[in-house]
Specification:
The protein has seven helices and ten strands. The protein has helices at 13-28, 34-38, 42-51, 101-114, 130-138, 211-225, 229-237; strands spanning 4-7, 57-62, 65-74, 84-92, 120-126, 142-151, 155-163, 172-179, 184-193, 196-203. Helix 6 packs antiparallel against helix 7 (229-237).
């Protein structure tokens, strides 16, 4: 199989969008909530790549057709004191896997990042995607132990991987508060970054959290973080998850 790699052009957006849409369904069926996957559309993928002009992306071409791509750039929402690059995503149609195409695209992206003053490269991977985790580890990425949660109809967890020497993890405090009546847990983390303090909350629960529990947890945690409790409480109450039917 002859595979051509090249940087994507703005006019590639329709083919890239098709790979993005189809690869999501092929890869994440069984790993992400069915209701979430059903709501994904080809049109939304087209809009993404039409608007970003397919920048910082390598495409894999077989017989004149784009069958995979990999995007890169700076680490979004960087919480480290260091300069990180990020693999924003790598997608390959199932029928072209097992030919080291994904590896070649990732190596292409890593080479581009190395020329942009990114001594370290990171990525987020679905914690339950064992195939992807094995792939990244084979290419020298390591699990930092840092995770984030997202509510996609169900709570899913992503793990933060990096390649290079990670000098400093995010410092801070973690607080857990249990709402026994609602059987929910509020997890608050105070992050101290570049002389600023942030209070983040994650919710280990499917039903709606009791807003009073959230406010109480924030009022207790905020002084330790050096934050104004009332302001922190107002900003977090608005982000209490909605009930899931």
């Amino acid at each position: 199989m002859k595979v051509i790699l090249r940087k994507a052009l703005p006019d590639d957006y329709e083919q890239i969008a098709f790979v993005h849409y189809k690869a999501w369904l092929e890869t994440y069926t069984g790993l992400l909530p069915e209701s979430f996957l059903k709501n994904r559309t080809l049109e939304s993928s087209i809009n993404i790549f039409k608007n970003n002009l397919c920048s910082n992306t390598v495409v894999a071409i077989v017989e004149g057709k784009i069958i995979g791509f990999c995007g890169w750039g700076h680490l979004r929402n960087n919480s480290f004191e260091e300069n990180f690059g990020e693999i924003h995503g790598i997608y390959l149609l199932d029928s072209y896997k097992k030919h080291k195409i994904g590896r070649k695209m990732l190596e292409f992206a890593l080479e581009k990042l190395s020329t942009k003053n990114y001594p370290k490269v990171s990525l987020w991977v679905l914690s339950s995607n064992e195939n992807a985790i094995h792939f990244y580890k084979k290419l020298g990425f390591s699990d930092t132990g840092i995770v984030k949660e997202e509510n996609l109809g169900e709570i899913i967890t992503e793990s933060f991987f990096y390649k290079g020497n990670l000098k400093k993890h995010i410092p801070g405090y973690v607080f857990y508060f249990n709402d026994r009546q609602e059987k929910n847990t509020v997890k608050l983390r105070c992050l101290m970054l570049n002389s600023y303090n942030y209070l983040t909350a994650s919710f280990n629960a499917l039903p709606a959290l009791n807003a009073g529990t959230t406010v109480a947890a924030i009022l207790i945690a905020s002084p330790v973080c050096g934050l104004r409790p009332s302001r922190a409480a107002r900003s977090r109450v608005s982000k209490v998850p909605k009930p899931i039917n």
